[in-house]
Design brief:
This protein has 13 helices and 12 strands. The protein is of the alpha/beta class.
């Protein structure tokens, strides 16, 4: 992979390689865009097949965070870190302390958080070396477990999608098929149950399924059967790429709204849903509750303020649908346009400001 060509093509700002021989740290920090503010994005630890695969993942995820943060209305850009290694066997304190020092050396251009393979405890270790980290323990003034907040954000976005699909945002009496009932989806189901929705659930974890059945009166089905059930809303909350050539013909839902990342196997599947009249809620817009929540830590965490910001996911989702109607494009394209238009407005504003400053300076001289 020709990294500079790739970075130039997709307008990346910076790619940083970090290593610490003593601890075994091998990390890649990718900063995609800081037009709206410093780059915020989590640190992922994974056993990549090759170093090139790790770099590609960091770049891909960083760009995704630019769009996610922009669409969420945050004054933050997009970045991401991947640490190469097995999170179960290769972690140590020295590794994350060393990584924290690298982050500190960026002087606030990049702010990290937990992600796949890293934990709150890992963020606490990083915090020993830098303040540019979120998702740390509540003892340090952080927000704690993000799942309840993320689940609430999905619920708010689902209500906006229901308004688009059914003419009302009430979920009472609606049947929602939830694929995956982990921590985030559990809280989503709780909100849906309290509003009077009927739930159909599936998960490879039978304990999670049993909890949803016992607490919310949900109907359980086998994992592969979730695509065929009669429902109003399909909520993918587990693996990505579940919306694909095989599953789309099986879906009976009018609305798709869920927590999973990368729900479309390919961007073209968004076009297919659009042509079929199925209301697809782009994942990085509806599942932004977690990043909105940790971003609030940068101002000194206030739960009430954070929850009010998470409620705006309803408005952000609605805006995506407005752009889709306005420009006659699929909703996944509309979400990208929402993010890109916001970034471009800020870029233009900054350019105008700099021109004015130069003009004033010229006349002073």
């Amino acid at each position: 992979m020709e990294f500079f060509s790739y970075m130039e093509k997709y307008d990346y700002e910076q790619l940083i390689f970090c290593q610490d021989k003593t601890s075994g740290l091998k990390a890649v920090i990718a900063i995609h865009d800081t037009t709206l503010g410093p780059a915020l994005g989590g640190t992922r630890m994974w056993t990549y097949d090759t170093e090139e695969a790790a770099v590609e993942d960091a770049l891909r995820l960083a760009k995704g965070m630019t769009y996610k943060n922009a669409a969420a209305g945050l004054n933050l850009g997009g970045g991401k870190t991947v640490i190469i290694g097995d999170p179960k066997t290769e972690k140590n304190e020295e590794m994350f302390r060393a990584f924290g020092r690298y982050i500190q050396g960026l002087h606030g251009r990049y702010i990290t958080a937990e992600d796949v393979g890293t934990t709150v405890q890992d963020m606490d270790t990083i915090y020993q070396e830098t303040n540019f980290v979120t998702g740390i323990s509540p003892a340090f003034g952080s927000s704690g477990n993000p799942s309840p907040v993320t689940g609430y954000g999905i619920y708010r976005g689902m209500k906006a999608a229901a308004k688009e699909g059914f003419g009302t945002d009430s979920l009472e009496g609606k049947t929602v098929a939830v694929q995956g009932v982990g921590n985030v989806a559990y809280h989503l189901c709780k909100h849906l149950h309290e509003e009077g929705a009927s739930l159909i659930v599936t998960d490879i974890n039978q304990e999670a399924v049993k909890r949803a059945v016992d607490e919310f009166g949900a109907t359980a089905v086998e994992p592969d059967d979730i695509y065929d059930v009669d429902c109003d809303i399909y909520a993918p909350c587990a693996l990505g790429a579940t919306i694909n050539d095989d599953t789309i013909p099986r879906l009976k839902a009018k609305v798709i709204a869920g927590a999973a990342n990368n729900q479309l196997k390919d961007a073209s599947h968004g076009e297919v849903l659009y042509e079929k009249g199925i209301i697809y809620t782009p994942d990085y817009v509806i599942n932004a509750g977690g990043v909105i929540n940790v971003a609030d830590e940068l101002d000194g965490y206030n739960k009430e303020r954070a929850m009010k910001k998470v409620e705006t996911i309803y408005d952000n989702v609605s805006q995506v649908f407005e752009i889709s109607r306005r420009d006659k494009i699929s909703t996944n394209q509309a979400a990208d346009r929402l993010a890109e238009e916001r970034i471009e407005r800020m870029r233009h504003s900054r350019s105008q400001f700099l021109q004015n400053e130069k003009h004033i300076l010229k006349h002073r001289l």
